[in-house]
Specification:
With 314 residues, the chain is of the alpha+beta class. Among the domains are: 1-117, ATPase, nucleotide binding domain (Nucleotidyltransferase, domain 5, 2-Layer Sandwich); 119-186, no CATH class. It is 46% helix and 13% strand. It contains eight helices and twelve strands. It has helices at 56-66, 84-97, 109-117, 156-160, 174-185, 199-206, 209-215, 234-313, and strands spanning 2-3, 16-18, 29-30, 44-46, 48-49, 52-53, 74-78, 104-108, 126-131, 136-142, 145-146, 168-170. Strands 9, 10, 11 and 12 form a four-stranded antiparallel sheet that branches. The radius of gyration is 45 Å and the shape is elongated. The N and C termini lie far apart (142 Å).
């Protein structure tokens, strides 16, 4: 079994996964289960940072969905000068996921291709140009092996980034080429573009001035004739200032009304206990005045009765 993490194997699938926060692991959408990437673009996660595997949780999902237990060795392709930590984590993941895997071998896909397509007995020196999705590696090969020469011309940051002297990594790959080609074609209509079958023959044609004038199509894009930074009329500036002042006055008036309403609500809450006490006092006073009136009425009635009884006695 060959697991090619950067090349073009026979079994092709998207190396992305989509899982919402809080969902279960079994509910993740993996590989070709994602029919359209655009609606889930903000949920997509990949195991790669450039061309190095760093997200091993996503890589484990890929293994679980792509393979099962195997009983034969595995060849695993990786980027040149891969970090030892990344390789160790990948080995642990492979032996944990594929429980019956006896051996794992790591290698660079471009060198595998070089050895497969050339005779090692009569091997001529050359340079391997390996272009991946995010970057491009330049590997010099002498006598069938990658050499580490030209150390004096190697930048210091290459030594610290894990790239051996004599090897070179350029941070330009297929994604940058595709986006650049897309930007080039954004201003060109479909009838005015074509794919060259013979690149060198097309270059010879374009050297001719007549062919150039005949094939080049110029298109005028819409633009505004008003130059930026031009002098604005004083009346327009005054009108804008008046409009801004009017908006500020309306905003301040609304804020004052809201503050007054809030103050009124606070005052009502504070006066509510006082009103309750006043009502209690009023009820008490009315009850006391009623009692005094009853007493006075009883005294008057008793006085009248006493006067009548005294008259009868006399």
């Amino acid at each position: 079994m060959v697991i090619d993490n950067v090349g073009a194997p026979r079994l092709l699938f998207k190396s992305v996964a989509a899982r919402s926060r809080g969902t279960l692991r079994s509910e993740s959408q993996i590989r070709n289960d994602i029919a359209n990437l655009e609606p889930l673009r903000w949920l997509l996660k990949s195991q790669f940072d450039r061309n190095v595997v760093v997200n091993f949780e996503i890589q484990e999902l890929m293994f679980d969905s792509a393979t099962s237990d195997v009983e034969h060795p595995i060849v695993f392709t990786e980027a040149p000068c891969n970090r030892l930590h990344s390789r160790q984590m990948m080995s642990v993941l492979l032996f944990d996921t594929l429980h019956r895997c006896p051996h794992v071998s790591y290698g660079v896909d471009s060198l595998y291709s070089l050895y497969y397509n050339n005779n090692l007995c009569n091997f001529t020196p050359g340079i391997v140009l390996s272009s991946s999705y995010h970057c491009t590696h330049i590997l010099p090969v002498i006598n069938g092996r990658c050499t580490q020469f030209n150390t004096c011309h190697t930048p210091c940051n290459m030594l610290s980034s894990g790239v051996s002297p004599g090897w070179m990594r350029v941070n330009v790959g297929g994604s940058q080429a595709a986006s650049y080609l897309q930007r080039l074609f954004q201003l060109k209509a479909a009838p005015h573009s074509y794919t060259a079958t013979d690149y060198h023959q097309e270059l010879e044609k374009w050297r001719s001035a007549e062919f150039y004038e005949q094939e080049v199509h110029r298109m005028q894009l819409p633009f505004s004739a008003k130059v930026l930074g031009s002098v604005v009329i004083v009346e327009e500036m005054q009108e804008r200032r008046a409009q801004q002042l009017h908006r500020l006055q309306e905003i301040n008036a609304r804020r004052r009304e809201e503050m007054l309403q809030q103050d009124q609500e606070r005052l009502d809450k504070l006066l509510a206990p006082q009103k309750y006490q006043l009502e209690k006092v009023k009820t008490k006073r009315s009850a006391a005045s009623l009692q005094s009136f009853q007493l006075q009425f009883e005294i008057v009635v008793l006085a009248v009765l006493f006067a009548r009884s005294s008259e009868q006695v006399s």
